[in-house]
Structures are given as structure tokens and as C-alpha cells.
Design goal:
Chain B: Its EC number is 6.3.5.7. Chain B: This is glutaminyl-tRNA synthase (glutamine-hydrolyzing). The structure holds 2 protein chains of 2 kinds. Helix content of chain A is about 30%, strand content about 5%. By secondary structure, chain A is mainly alpha-helical. In chain A, a hairpin with a 2-residue loop joins strand 1 and strand 2 (about 90-95). Chain A starts with 9 loop residues before the first helix and ends in a 10-residue tail after the last strand. By secondary structure, chain B is of the alpha/beta class. Chain B contains 15 helices and 11 strands. The chains are: A mainly alpha, B alpha/beta.
């Protein structure tokens, strides 16, 4: 909880938007904060539950790692996969510069 | 032209016997699409040419005496979040607009092998996030029964396609009710199978521990038939249950004599009075058919909504990280890669998707993980334990599918919480991983259809289809 009593602040929303790589402007931060605060206000209901000793449940049934036989199998066509990419070069995905553009 | 039957099983029988050609069945459905699709907008894409080629190939097989599958010549619509090789798959999102997958989803492969003819890709709430199909980037779908109202969601296009007669059957996906709720609102049958019964390979992931593919149909028997075809183990999905597809069509007419049906005494409120009245009528019909109604308690059910709206967005925030402008879909160019990510995702995702990504990112972030996501996982366990306890004394449980009949456009579009409350009765089964189906059972407010939901324990599809069949038989006289 933030000091204002709201379950999420504008600063929180701006932070998670950055973490999630979503560029949103100040007006959107205000709008989303209002909506998310309303949704998260509802989440307080589970605070009434005694959850001590309850095991978390991440999946409907226990999962084990699944391994297949180590044999050659057909895979996706590289040409077809690359044809969907926004930019390619030398049969690879091309992206803008990763380092060296700041400061 | 001969009369075209309305069900998939009759169409398949007529095509296999040569009484009808797959092509004439297809043309009749394409004509209906031509007539009403401009009003309904069930489809993001109608694949008429590919469908004609597929129908002609089936007719050639039959003419040559080659064996055909159990769905020979049956037109089917596929929700546009399932991959179709070389055919645009958008998830109703601008971020995937124009993307042509390099492979087919397993369900698509199985349907094609069974002889089904895909007529198109249906509209949905973007990335299956919503309960009205208003969150589509490509326009809303209208309810064929009243075009001023929503078809439900997120599989609204697939529900509307069946309700409008565009195809006798369709596929949807159900993460928190996205098959059952639109089925209820459009007056058709909708099934969410047990988690892991139907392969998710090629289903664009929303919340991987909850997502499951299932059918829409006009009859319970057709829904059973499609489930049989798409179910069964798939090595391409590591959560696929390693067992053969169950036999289900026979269960539909088995009756419910001796079955124990659970009535939830502490069901969370909020259902319209007409919906509650239909639920009472459903219990009465099953009792008259020889079932015993047993009171059960699900004390944690009221907390399912909170657990779901933390767990599903948390998983979504991770799954949707793959849409980054690098390998497929939209890219908004920027000075560096990091800026490209932010600009691409801002331009490509709609508001509801952004809300859920932010909600999920927050629930998983340092300092909040235990307070939100961690707690939600424990509540999920409590809900599953409640069901386990209840199923010690009953075979299936009945509850409404949706608290409301189809609502008007815009009523809830900008109020996320009121939209989320539409899922209150459908979410618990996804959290538990159980099967559930919605059966049209009379009408409620404004003469609109009401869906009754049949819930069963994991892999309890046979019991579920028995009860579904009995409700369908009773619904004829129960209007």
C-alpha cells in the first residue's frame, strides 16, 4: 500500500510501464492509475483469508519436465520464419543498436 | 439444392454418404456469411478460397472411394488466436496484424485430418482479454440474437458464428470463461475441457496455466464430437495429458438416472433474478430425470475473481513479453532496441492488454510478489481443495454460466472491474483445471438466452456430457 491509501500510485504505474516496456504518457499514467486502483481495491478481499500453511498452486496438476527422444525431427522453415520478421540481415533478425546511443 | 442440415454430425453423415457434397454444404454457409457478416462481424478473415479447395478435395476423396474423417465436409470457424499455416493470425491485435504463422496449431491439424473445412478466423477480445469482444483492435462483434448487444467474450466471434449459422461448429479458447460466457450470451453450447486434454500447441498464450481450447456447437452431441476430435495427447505440448481422447458422444444420451448433482449453497451473489430462476428450473429438470440434487459448499469461491485477476495478468505479462518487434508482427522504429520495444508495444497493444500487462508486472514485482501473486496462488489451492471436497459427494455441479444476459455495447467497456465481474462463475474451474460446459436453458431478461453451467472434476467429461445432454433434452420443454 502506498501512503495515500491507494493500492497503486501514479509512480508505481509509471515504473511498471517502464519494466514492461510500454511507453505511456503522463495523461495515460493518470488514467491507468485510476482504473488499476479500482481493480486492486477489490483484491483486498483475500486479506481476510488465513493462508498460513496453504501450499501455492501454480498449475492444475503437478508437472514434470518432458523430454523427447534425441532424434532428428523436422523443424520450422528458416526462410518462412524470417519472412515474418520486421527486418533481417544475413539470415538473422536485425534490430536497432543495443548499446552506445545514450549519453 | 438439397436442404443443408444444421448439425455437424448430420452434415458429416450426409457428405460421407454422398447425399450432399462438401462443396454445396460450404457454399450454403458462405452464402449465409455473405448475407449477414456485415452486420455481425464474427470474422477477422473469411477463408472462402482455401475452404473451397478443401471441400473439393474431400468431394474428390469420396468420389474415388477413399475413406474420409468423422467431420467430412463440416464447416468450422477458428478463433483468431490459433495458428493457421500461411493464413493471417492476429489475436485481434495490431501488434500481430498481417502475421502468417509458419505452422498449424495441433487442433487445426486434427480438424483438417478429420475432414472439417475451415471457413475463417473469428474475432476476439485482443489476446483473449475481455468478456464482450469490444477489446478487438478490428471492431466489435455483434450478438446475432440482438445486434445492439455484445456476444460476450473473449471468443465472441466464434460464438456469434455458430449462433448466426455461419458454421455449425467453431473453436474458442477459455482462460476464465471465454468459451462458456459467450456461448451463454449467444444461446449456443460451449465447452471448456479439462486442462491438458486438448493440446495448446499453436494457441497464442494468454495465461498458460489456465488456457484451454474447446468447441462451440448448436447441440451437446456436436460439442462432444468436436471435443473427441481435438482431444488426446500431443508431444508438442508439455502440459498435454498423456492419454487417449475419451469417447464422449455416447454419454450425451445416457441420461442422469442415479447421478448426484451439486447445488452450491454459498454461491456468490450477483446473478440476475431470471438467471437464478433458470438455475432452479435446471435442478428441477434433472431431478425429474432421475438425478439426486445434493447441497455442497464452496466457501472460497468468492475469492476466485481476485486470484484469477492476479494470476492471469501475471502469466500474461510474461507471455506477452515475446511481442517485442524483433521476430514477427509490428515494429515501430526507434533510436535503439530498448526504445523500439517501448514504442512498438505502446503502438501495438490496446488498453486492456496494457492494463493486464501492468497489473501482472506489478503483482510479480519485487516487494509485491508475496502480497499479491504469492497469495493468489494460495487462494487457488483453497478453491481447488473446495472442489475436491465437493466432488466427494457429487458427480457434477450446476451454476449459472454468466450472472447477466447479453448486455449493450459500451455498458462496461471503460469500467474494467464491472467487466471482470462477468466471469465470477466461470473463473473457478479454470483455476482448478476442471472441465465445464454451458448449455442454453431458456431465456431471461429481454427474452435473451440464459446459459446453465455444468462443472465436473478433472477428466470428468463423461459425467459432464451426460448432464449436458439431459439439460438440452429438458430445455425444449422448459422455455
Amino acid at each position: 500500500m502506498t501512503q495515500s491509501g491507494s493500492p497503486i500510485s501514479a509512480a508505481d504505474v509509471a515504473k511498471v510501464a517502464h519494466l514492461a516496456r510500454l511507453d505511456i504518457d503522463d495523461a495515460q499514467v493518470v488514467h491507468f492509475t485510476e482504473q488499476l486502483a479500482k481493480v486492486m481495491g477489490h483484491f483486498g478481499d483475500i486479506d481476510a483469508l488465513d493462508l498460513s500453511g496453504v501450499e501455492p498452486m501454480t498449475q492444475p496438476y503437478p508437472l514434470v519436465n518432458v523430454m523427447r527422444e534425441d532424434v532428428e525431427m523436422p523443424t520450422l522453415s528458416t526462410d518462412e520464419v524470417l519472412a515474418s520478421a520486421p527486418a533481417t540481415e544475413e539470415r538473422r533478425f536485425r534490430v536497432p543498436p543495443i548499446v552506445g546511443t545514450e549519453g | 439444392m438439397a436442404t443443408i442440415p444444421t448439425t455437424a454430425s448430420e452434415i458429416a453423415a450426409a457428405v460421407a454418404s454422398g447425399a450432399l457434397t462438401a462443396r454445396e454444404v460450404l457454399e450454403a454457409h458462405l452464402a449465409r456469411i455473405e448475407e449477414r457478416e456485415a452486420d455481425i462481424h464474427a470474422f477477422n478473415l473469411v477463408t472462402a478460397d482455401a475452404a473451397r479447395a478443401q471441400a473439393d478435395a474431400i468431394d474428390a476423396d469420396i468420389a474415388a472411394g477413399r475413406p474420409v474423417g468423422p467431420l467430412a465436409g463440416v464447416p468450422i470457424a477458428i478463433k483468431d488466436n490459433m495458428c493457421t499455416h500461411g493464413i493471417e493470425t492476429t489475436c485481434s491485435s495490431k501488434i500481430l496484424e498481417g502475421w502468417k504463422p509458419p505452422y498449424d496449431a495441433t487442433v487445426v491439424t486434427r480438424l483438417r485430418a478429420a475432414g472439417a473445412v475451415m471457413v475463417g478466423k473469428t474475432n476476439l477480445d485482443e489476446f483473449a482479454m475481455g468478456s464482450s469482444t469490444e477489446n478487438s483492435a478490428f471492431g466489435t462483434t455483434r450478438n446475432p440474437l440482438d445486434t445492439s448487444r455484445v456476444p460476450g467474450g473473449s471468443s465472441g466471434g466464434s460464438a456469434a458464428a455458430v449462433a448466426a449459422g455461419f458454421s455449425p461448429v467453431s473453436l474458442g479458447s477459455d482462460t476464465g470463461g471465454s468459451i462458456r460466457q459467450p456461448a451463454a450470451l449467444c444461446g449456443v453450447v460451449g465447452v471448456k475441457p479439462t486442462y491438458g486434454l486438448v493440446s495448446r500447441y499453436g494457441l497464442v498464450a494468454y495465461a498458460s496455466s489456465l488456457d484451454q481450447i474447446g468447441p462451440f456447437a448448436t447441440t451437446v452431441s456436436d460439442a462432444a464430437l468436436i471435443t473427441e476430435v481435438i482431444a488426446g495427447h500431443d508431444v508438442m505440448d508439455s502440459t498435454s495429458i498423456p492419454q487417449e481422447a475419451p469417447s464422449l458422444v455416447g454419454a450425451v444420451s445416457e441420461g442422469v438416472a442415479g447421478m448426484r448433482i451439486g447445488r452450491v449453497v454459498d454461491l456468490p451473489g450477483g446473478a440476475e433474478p431470471e438467471v437464478s430462476a433458470r438455475l432452479d428450473a435446471a435442478f428441477a429438470a434433472l431431478a425429474a430425470a432421475g438425478a439426486t440434487i445434493v447441497d455442497v459448499t464452496l466457501p472460497s469461491l468468492g475469492y476466485a475473481l481476485t486470484a484469477y485477476y492476479l494470476i492471469a495478468p501475471a502469466e500474461a505479462s510474461s507471455n506477452l513479453a515475446r511481442f517485442d518487434g524483433v521476430r514477427y508482427g509490428l515494429r515501430v522504429n526507434a533510436v535503439d532496441t530498448n526504445a523500439m520495444y517501448g514504442a512498438t508495444r505502446a503502438a501495438g497493444f490496446g488498453d486492456e492488454v496494457k492494463r493486464r500487462i501492468m497489473l501482472g508486472t506489478y503483482a510479480l514485482s519485487a516487494g509485491y510478489y508475496d502480497a499479491y501473486y504469492g497469495k493468489a496462488l494460495k487462494v487457488r489451492r483453497l478453491i481447488a481443495q473446495d472442489f475436491d471436497k465437493a466432488y466427494e459427494s457429487v458427480d457434477t455441479i450446476l451454476m449459472p454460466t454468466s450472472p447477466l444476459v447479453a448486455f449493450k455495447f459500451g455498458e462496461k467497456a471503460d469500467d474494467p472491474m464491472s467487466m471482470y465481474l462477468c466471469d465470477i462463475y466461470t473463473i473457478p474451474t479454470n483455476l482448478a483445471g476442471h472441465p465445464a460446459m454451458s448449455i442454453p436453458f431458456g431465456t431471461g431478461a429481454h427474452g435473451l438466452p440464459v446459459g446453465i453451467q455444468v462443472l465436473a472434476p478433472a477428466l470428468g467429461e463423461v459425467a459432464m456430457f451426460r448432464v449436458g445432454g439431459a439439460l438440452e433434452a429438458a430445455a425444449g420443454g422448459a422455455q
